[in-house]
Write a structure and sequence with these properties.
The structure is a single chain. Helices cover 38% and strands 12% of the residues. By secondary structure, the chain is an alpha/beta fold. The chain has one domain. Helix 2 packs parallel to helix 4. The longest helix is centred in the first third of the chain and has 20 residues. This is SCFD2 protein.
């Protein structure tokens, strides 16, 4: 709400910072229902004091490529055919393992909102080291730059689509 630095007041700056932190809280709240992927922040421990950052995309790809293969908590398999529906129905009466996303030699990841070039490289490197032989395609609604990521986070109304009308 300020067209030049000459019109900047302390109240306008405070309101802008409050809006930024509200946006960050809204983004964090969007993942509150998740059990495994609910945070990108690791506060550290008594022995390792430093806080660290672990991107959500990295967490998801590591879970998909996990060789120990526990049942994914936040990744859900959707039944697609009659055979899958029968297996899902019988799973109430007997132990039937759901398919794991890492079972398939072809992985498609679609990022709603955008993906950066460094995230695509990170996915490629993780899959190559943890699950060699798996083909991966990363699709996205946008290729993000540092500037466009900040604009999407703070300068636009994310709930109203940009229709250019």
């Amino acid at each position: 709400g300020c067209d030049s630095s000459l019109n900047l007041t302390s109240q306008k700056a405070t309101d802008a910072v409050d809006d930024i932190f509200q946006s960050l809280r809204d983004i964090a709240r969007a993942r509150m229902h998740m059990k495994q992927f609910n945070s990108i922040h690791n506060a550290g421990s008594n022995t390792h004091q430093a806080a660290s950052y672990k991107p959500l995309l990295k967490q998801v790809v590591e879970e998909i490529c996990n060789p120990d293969r526990p049942d994914p908590v936040d990744i859900e398999h959707m039944s697609s055919g009659l055979t899958d529906l029968l297996k899902t129905g019988f799973s109430m009466f007997m132990k039937v393992n759901r398919p794991h996303p890492g079972d398939h030699p072809f992985l498609i990841i679609f990022m709603v909102g955008g993906v950066t070039v460094s995230e695509v490289k990170m996915v490629k490197d993780l899959v190559a080291t943890r699950k060699p032989g798996t083909q991966v395609i990363v699709l996205s609604s946008a290729l993000l730059t540092p500037r466009s990521a900040i604009e999407l986070l703070f300068a636009t109304d994310r709930l109203q689509p940009d229709t250019d009308i």
